[in-house]
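User: Structure with zinc ion, tokens only please.
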Amino acid sequence: MSELLGGVETGGTWCVCAIGTGPDELVAREQFRTSEPEETIARIGDFFAAGPRIAALGVGSFGPVDPDPESSTWGYVTTTPKPGWQQTPIAPRLRARLDVPVVFDNDVNAAAVGEHRWGAGDGIASLCYLTVGTGIGAGLLIGGRPWHGLVHPEVGHIRIPHDRARDPFDGICPVHGDCWEGLAAGGAIAQRWEADPRELPDGHAAWELETEYLALGILSIVLVASPERLIVGGGVMERAGLLAALRRRLPELLDGYLQTPLLAERIDEYLVAPQLGDSAGVLGAIALAGDALTARG
Ligand code: ZN
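Assistant:
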């Protein structure tokens, strides 16, 4: 085994820490609820301080974040609506405590890297990892690398058509109301139907509406970023039949506009489920840490 690496995914709900070099070579792993920043960052630090020595640490955090190494707020969670976490210097604090090189990105970019390296995106240079759970987020790899651009994509907050005659629900995004996440995340389903989404039966109207909203958002991703594969995961996607429904609806919305056999005949190879489950983010963080070490020589 080569030098050990650390990875941490701080998600909106769960924090996952691991030490190792890949999915089959993890020597330690711990998962706990993401609480307030002081306690959470201290607990992450404790995990790595107690474990075997790591050569570098990758951090994938819920966002929005500042991933720009040249910025004075590099490694911060910035404008998040999550209470207490605004302007939190998560990566700088971990670097100071553990005294190792730290590489930082958002949680969905990290998950995209993990699925690209070891999961459903193996060999696909341009891919999108989309998660539909408590919120909606997407990581984008272009040429095998996480895309940042201006800040980083915040796909969950794009606008999709909202037919208020069909769905008068105002949406739950604290910033935008009826953005994509506001209409289609798990929390939106729960509030709109006043039920735990897991308890809504398969034939419930919730799922036809959810299919439409997810397909509309995915349509925009396909048209803007042109990924070669879309990996769609998260708690909401555990609903049996939802992925299959998206595979039917997306080509209908595209209506033959993009001419490629992947969309026309092999959509089941284009819209796919993740393979790393809830370890995609933490494994991607480990991969990023390894890449950063390699780049340093
Ligand atoms: Zn929003």
